[in-house]
Amino acid sequence: MAVSETKYTEEHEWLRPEDDGVVVVGITEYAAEQLGDIVYVELPEEGTTVTKGDEIVVIESVKAASDIVAPVDGEIVEVNEALADNPGLVNEDPLGDGWFFKIKPSDMSQLDEYMDEDAYKEMIS
Amino acid sequence: MAELRRTALYDLHLELCARMVPFAGWEMPVQFRLGVMKEHLHTRAAAGLFDVSHMGQVILRPRSGYMAEAAAALEALMPVDVLGLAEGRQRYGFFTNDDGGIIDDLMFARRADHFLLVVNAARREVDLALLKGALEDRCTVEEVPNRALLALQGPAAEAALTRIVPQVSAMRFMDAGVFHIPGADLWISRSGYTGEDGFEISVPEAEAVSFARRLLEMEEVEPIGLGARDSLRLEAGLCLYGNEIDEATSPVEAGLVWAIPKVRRRGGAREGGFPGAARILRELEEGPARRLVGLLPEGRAPMRAHTPLFASEEGGDAIGEVTSGAFGPSVERPVAMGYVTTGNDREGTAIFGEVRGRRLPARVARLPFFPHRYKR
User: Fold this and answer.
1) Which residues form the GCVT N-terminal domain (chain B) (predicted)?
2) B interface residues, A as partner, C-beta within 8 Å
């Protein structure tokens, strides 16, 4: 399957497919800005099999706790260990160093239902 | 739903890109451009300007003209020393109910011919009703109209404010006075809610924006929202009405015994004589069943308000709950306050807070988490 463009969920996650059939997941700049300073991120364990909609990440900002759900069915193949010591990376670089986890989807077509960048921008405007 | 009230600084907040939220019936800034974390750190490093105009300012004036009468009347509502307060000084107090719970906590200053009270926004109506019901035969009770209230807090607060009001450098912690600048009289006390040195300044609404702008133009001063106000007071170990204290918590449980002087305790010259004296005097002698403590969670996960607390990692009934919890930007770790049953309140005691179904370790810690830096 060809590598496709970055997708966006209504929960403000971005999903970036990589060459090896793995999808990197983080939150958008808009979401990071809305959450405020992030002070703690609880990530799933590598190797966990998750179902779309499972709450798998907890983000604590100075204001409140919020959940990030698994956007697709699959296996967590890597998590961003740097967030344990430096959760502020999510605010500093949400689209880059502030990523949360990499998931290997069991069905890549589950990504199709999500928005492209233009549709996401439209949603938050 | 009732319309939210706006302070005199509302338009200025919008101009400064504040994020506004409803708070106790008011539309207030929760953060400005810097965001909560940087606003907090800026206040501890330099000076932060807070709009606290939502708080109630109340004047209590003795009908007879004798201040001792107003002081005695106020003492009948609070287990603190009002009669002994000198003119030009301010003190912390709390109204108690017949069960020894706290109706509100407040600051009160003695001025030439009246007391000036500053009460919580969410409790102003309750307080006014209480004061009028209990004291109106001896005092007039009047909410101060058309004055904003600002707080300037932090190690650079004195340097900043003295450029406008040079005399404030002579004030020490909990002094209160009236100062005149062109176009306005300022009611200033050297006090605050951050643990830092600083001032609370009552200014006529018509002059509030220009006064705030003069401060904000200074290099040291940044506007600070309610978000950082909360993390600052939590690091300073200061109670928030509705979190640590309410109508069911006694001042002894809440660790406010420092505000109850010997003269109002058993054997004192003015023993008792305030609502709930039976419970409060008993708890002072025998100890309360639970106490407010500081809590240091061991990991990085904050323990928020209402997190249940346990004595062991598994099993057993809850021994209390967290009342306030957040990440402390200056101490660079999560901090919390909460009630635990007596016996679990010693410094260093290991306890567990249940967060998302898991019991996470924490230790009972001394308050404040960040040392107070008042100019005494």
Assistant:
1) 9-261
2) 30-31, 35-38, 227, 231, 300-302, 304, 326-327, 334, 356
Residue B313 assigned ligand-binding role: no
For residue A80, the model assigns a pLDDT of 97
Q: pLDDT tens across A19-73, in order? A: 899 999 999 999 999 999 999 999 999 999 999 999 999 999 988 889 999 999 9
| Mean pLDDT taken over chain B | 97
Is the alpha carbon torsion for B98, B99, B102, B108 positive or negative? positive
Residues of chain A contacting residue B227, judged by C-beta atoms under 8 Å apart: 36, 62-63
- Residue-wise pLDDT tens digits, A20-34: 999 999 999 999 999
In sequence order, what are the residues at sequence separation of 6 or more whose Cβ sits closer than 8 angstroms to the Cβ of residue A63?
A: A35, A36, B30, B36, B227
Q: How high is the ipTM of this complex? A: 0.83
pLDDT, position A62: 87
B-chain residues within 8 Å CB-CB of A87?
300
Please give the span between the terminal C-alpha atoms of chain B, in angstroms, as a whole number.
Answer: 45
- B304 and A65 in contact by Cβ < 8 A? yes
CATH number of A36-104: 2.40.50.100
Which residues in chain A are closer than 8 Å to B35, comparing Cβ atoms? 36-37, 62
CA distance B102 to chain A (A): 27
Q: What is the DSSP letter of A73?
A: S
